[in-house]
Design goal:
This protein has 295 residues and is an alpha+beta fold. The protein is 24% helix and 24% strand. The chain contains eight helices and 15 strands. Bound molecules: N-oxalylglycine and manganese (II) ion.
Length: 295
Amino acid sequence: MAIDVLPLHPLFAAEMRGVDLASTTDREVLARIRASMDRHAVLVFRDQGLDDRAQLAFAERLDGQLHAKTGISALAANRFGNEALTDVSNVDADGQLLPADDRRRQYSLSNRLWHTDASFVDPPGRYSLLSARVVPPVGANTEFADMRAAWDALPEDLKNLCAPLRAHHSIAHSRELLGFSFSPEERERLRGVEQPLVRTNPATGRRSLYLASHASAIIGWPLAEGRLLLKDLTEHATRREFVYSHAWREGDLVIWDNLATMHRATPFEDKRYRRDLRRVTTLDLPRDMPAGATV
Ligand code: OGA
Ligand code: MN
């Protein structure tokens, strides 16, 4: 079957048709998906119906090593028994809706802040693959912002200011922004890392702003000035013209490049409707590294 790529937005994001991800082992098809990721940064695949095993295995075939030390895994047991599969749902192990004060629910609310996945580890996350198993009847879109377009649109003086800067990223920061609190032990485990504020994709040469709600400070700057710069850049980068909003259907798999985009969840009646999405995130390692995570 021929592979088609249909743009979903003037700047980025596309739907790829004609690929069955669960069975794709063809190196040329995998290379085509990676090249399309470099170009579009977000790829939507409809009607995939992946199960956990197929999702994990496909992520490894596509991009090698998986991120397994997710933030939440420091706090709660993973309901799938595999730390590489992140639970992006509002249900418990029995499929029941999480109550309003549930700690995992509270923690996950920070997904509604603009962020990129796994910027708080080194090497950081590269691709996220989010699979929709159950979606509510209304809303609950995921929004994506193109951080390459945001970089391109910055005035020259801001580009020069940002290019050499580094920021501190910790998942504790994005949670604390919404009032979540950690024990001193948890905080220590979620200490975070430094990341460049600007990245270059080695395959395309395109630069992008590397921002996230996990970013708490600009290294070497006073705290307030650093946070103000991060806030101003985030406002700039998430202007509507840079944003694609994805309306989920069951069976979707959406892949995004965390080094070239930000994303956020949007509100829905989460105490009324079930939403069960599951995510695998790969690490930004050279592609010839052997896959290390087990499936
Ligand atoms: C994620 C995430 C947003 C959403 O899975 O990393 O941020 O809409 N999800 O669930
Ligand atoms: Mn996320």
